[in-house]
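Handout, section 4.2: multi-component inputs.
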Amino acid sequence: MTNENDYILVVDDERAIRDMVCMALVQEDFQCSEASDAHKAEVLIKKNQPQLILLDWMMPGISGIDFARKLRRQPETMNIPIIMLTAKIEEDNVIRGLESGADDYLTKPFSPRELIARIKALLRRSKPENTQDIIKINNLVLDTSSYRVEGNGQTIELGPTEFKLLRFLMENPDRVFSREQVLNNVWGDNVYVEERTVDVHIRRLRKALEPTHHQDMVQTVRGAGYRLSNK
Amino acid sequence: MTNENDYILVVDDERAIRDMVCMALVQEDFQCSEASDAHKAEVLIKKNQPQLILLDWMMPGISGIDFARKLRRQPETMNIPIIMLTAKIEEDNVIRGLESGADDYLTKPFSPRELIARIKALLRRSKPENTQDIIKINNLVLDTSSYRVEGNGQTIELGPTEFKLLRFLMENPDRVFSREQVLNNVWGDNVYVEERTVDVHIRRLRKALEPTHHQDMVQTVRGAGYRLSNK
DNA sequence: AGCAACTGTAATATTTATGTAATATAACTC
DNA sequence: GAGTTATATTACATAAATATTACAGTTGCT
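Output:
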């Protein structure tokens, strides 16, 4: 699974910490922005709402506690999970931290591994429950929760890439995608493979669809790309 | 939805923590009882079985780990979800915690919000089991209350982890789970175990299912995870 | 204390999928 | 219809994912 869609904001006045954290996040495919103080953070949040905020406890200007409190007060930011980064844990900190509304704590120094684990745990909780969704076009049924594809009730065997490819096309039926677009959406943004590779996987997909005669739904648009359609 | 039917027991020697936690619980409409040590907790459990137990790691007398282990051994309390409250996470704690059978961890200090979120997540998971003790798929019968599994009437011997694994899969049949999801649901959240460990337990489960020829119900979905299905 | 049962990890083996290049076919241009 | 370009098809070496086994450390039990 990839974290590409989760955007995390790191707020800390120490550049070294920000860099370290961001590096760990990027390694895990998270999107990441940095802010050196609360004001800059606010601007960034307005521009693009993060899924999670890592917030330093002690900062010049507005402290992490006060900033957390402020975020909790505003409806738009109320539900963004916050992880506090503290130098050390003191009883006093704990109480004030609880009140400010942080969701988790991390005491410096912390390992990237622990940081990632906690972020994932929090994100999991803040995400809506998995929804079982079934895409159905023309007797061709793709179930994303069971990873099954059926044509006229018959099971169709697909490799991982063919499954992702079919899923992408079925989620956007009747629309033509260039090979580049297909690569970006199915393989991922930062992967480099030959454009012609798409042809091969289209071929594999068609072959797999032959037994149930759905191969013609995967259509070539010469000079433009590919399309999935029932016409 | 309301939580007034869920009764939660808080076991901790520190009064301040108990009060804080209970206050948060009551605010969410949970029923709540407090116990300052394992013995008092035991009496309360006998009187009225809680839906979930919050258990302090370090307590004078019987420690949280030992108490959890004890609860796991007795059939009546075997299936009550347990969340451990620990002062800090050390490698050693994690390992021993795993074996004691806790379902989740919470490191002090924690926010009420996170506490509630985790409790709800755990309850959601254990709900189907409360209403239905016996899950049956394809002549494979799993009885959560007696900790027994039968295939075609024949008893199947399973270790604790394999049992939990099979149970989780049977509660969500025909659905693919990544190794990460399996770990979070079977081992518990916030637990650092290699993803490949799942493979090994899947192997053990399959082996145990061989005598009754149910091993093929545990299916690999390459690039995605595992699934239990009768197809 | 000592044996049996479990667990997680690492090493190794096995299976399956992937991307590329080479070649064939089809579709356009003029 | 020859030449040109785009796509189809096939084969294959390699990479990646999973299966399997062995093992060392714990715990539970007697």
